[in-house]
Amino acid sequence: MKVGRAYFTLFISFLIFELFQKIFLFYSQKNVITECTEIKNYILYEKRYESAKRSIVGLKNDNFVCYFNSLIQALYFQNDFMKGLFLYEHTKEQRCIFILKELLEQMLNDRIVNTSVYLKEILELDSNFEYFKFGCFEDAGTCLDIIFLRILKEIDVKKFSDLNNVTNKYFPINLYLFQMKTTYLCVECLEKNIIYGDNYNLVLYLENSIQESINKSFNVESIQCYKNKFKDEIHYAKILREFVNLPSSIIIKNTHDPSSNGNVWIDEEIIVQNQKYSFKACVFYVKDLHYYTVAVLDNNYYELNDNSVKNLNIESIENLGFSDIPDILFYEKCNSKI
Predict the structure, then answer these.
(1) Pick from 10, 88, 54: which is nearest to 297 by CA?
(2) Does residue 124 contact residue 63 with C-beta atoms inside 8 Å?
(3) Rounded distance, CA 88 to CA 42, Å?
(4) pLDDT tens for each residue of 314-336
(5) Does the residue 104 lie in any domain?
(6) Does the pLDDT at position 146 exceed 90?
(7) How far apart are CA 290 and CA 311, in angstroms?
(8) CATH number, domain containing residue 97
(9) What value does the mean pLDDT of the chain take?
């Protein structure tokens, strides 16, 4: 009996060993398959979506959607955005990401797209967008807010407490989202307040040049102290702004009133906290209610004005003569720092 039980115990142990071995092999193969799939997807992306082979096409302007067309063209010309978007494995609930993929896929296939259909789909995803009037001329900056807020909602951005630890699979965060630290300091009142805020675009009052506007915004600013404990005399506090983390790409939004002129120098390269960024695209506002885009891809500059595409014979955005207002600018991080 004891011998029989010993054999039975040995047999059961063997079965358990075999079972664990098969489970281990299954998950090992699954991980290998997942890694192979990711590598395959990356190779397919590199072959199909590499900038050298990317089609440059115009877009139809139905229902006054030049503002949307200009934004789509600006995003289309950014390699990091395109790479992140098409490598991102979206779920069926992430409709905005899917819609953008479908639209940009059409452009990659050299098709002139009626973008109003896609914009209408995006606006219908959320009842909070009802203030945005489809079929009327709207603001490009507001439209960009809608797109990005929807994407951030779909990937549940609130669950990330540390932006520096976000993985590449959450592409909109890694590319654009940053945290800004604002310090309010009054020596007289011994008052110090620090405020942190997350955003995806840098809002600036643009004047003279992009770089000068950045420098002015991040210089120490003196304002009248709001606390003012000493009522008999006015004194001043200091405000200092700085990035907690620098994004891979910076979107700059101009706060110029539409009646302003376009006399702003667009720098080919800008420096933010010792980090260089290079120009990728600019959405221009025309005073008679119109938007168009100028963008660069592989050192070739293009003007994209709805269904019109023009190859600009310039070596830098700084060579472009224009009088329209730079409304939204896209800059991409360079490898080098200063």
Answers:
(1) 54
(2) no
(3) 10
(4) 999 999 877 789 999 999 999 86
(5) yes
(6) yes
(7) 20
(8) 3.90.70.10
(9) 83
Contact indicator for 23, 76 with CB cutoff of 8 Å: no
Q: Is residue 252 part of a domain?
A: yes
Range of 25's domain? 21-49
Determine the pLDDT at residue 289: 87
Residue at token pair 């603001």: 139
The number of beta carbons lying within 10 Å of the beta carbon of residue 132 is 16
Q: Which residues of the chain form beta strands (DSSP E)?
A: 59-60, 113-114, 178-186, 191-199, 202-204, 208-209, 221-224, 236-243, 249-254, 264-265, 269-272, 275-286, 290-297, 300-305, 308-312, 325-337
Asked whether residue 283 is assigned to any structural domain, the reply reads yes
Give the contacts of 121 (CB within 8 A, at least 6 positions apart). Answer: 95, 99
Which pLDDT value is given to residue 32? Answer: 44
Q: What is the pLDDT of residues 46-82, one digit of tens each?
A: 555 565 578 899 999 999 999 999 999 999 999 889 9
Q: How many CB atoms lie within 10 A of CB 101?
A: 15
Tokens of 194: 């620090």
Residue 103 CA to residue 60 CA, distance in Å, equals 12
The residue written with tokens 């047999």 in the block is 11
Give CA separation, 186 vs 189, 223, 225, 234, 265, in Å: 6, 10, 7, 12, 35
